[in-house]
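Appendix B. Raw example, untouched.
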Amino acid sequence: MKKKLNIQVISGVLLFAVFSCTSYKQIPYFQGKGDLGEFETVSYAEKSIVRIQPDDMLAITVNVVGEQKIASDYNLPIQPAATSFGGENEAVDQGIGRQTYLVSKNGDIDFPTLGLIKVSGYTQEELQDYIKKLLQERMKVNPVVTVRLMNFRILVLGEVGRPGQYTINKTRIDLFEAITLAGDMTVYGKRENVWIRRQLPEGTFKYVKLDLSKADVTTSPYFYLRQNDMIYVQPNKAKALQSDISLLTTVVSLASFLMSVITFVAVYKR
């Protein structure tokens, strides 16, 4: 009984030490501007536009009001419902069930009737206008072209509420929106140590560390995310110490159990 009490006391003291290591200053966002009630920063929103790159998946649909027979020559066939990606409902949302185009390593797609066209480097809106212009040279009517990036996904790992991969259904998302999708940071996440891994068009990766405790994080060109970005929130020392304490508690409990077994066996033999 006395041994168990001692173990509980030691565990309690260690746990108190762990939680006391996480100070309030490590928790809030938007620090670094003193006691000002408001302030402004320069935004990179207009410069951080998602552009199409090799290995992207595109859903492109061409429509002509009242002339669908003409438009059918410029559309890929519709996927059967049984083989549509992610189920029937998701197929309807993603390109109305049409097959997608895989952007080649050279940045091209093979478009019906038009043949190979360069798409890398364009935004979705720019590519819509470009394809529309190419089609107007062949048609006597004004087509409606819709382009959707199908692989705009981000990965959020580390000290967040819900780590995982998230599909983005809009043209732009910033770092705070992404962390909100993942359930916000836990108290064990290092606000000053958030890493972004970004895949570059040539296939290499770039790693950048951002400090979310500073308000000027919004001025970083990596604040707005792109397709296939990975966010990793590093754990703080309190999390590491908590893991060590959990291991120590397990070892002490196991040792106590073994001692009890040995004592029981010794008494039984007597």
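End of appendix B.
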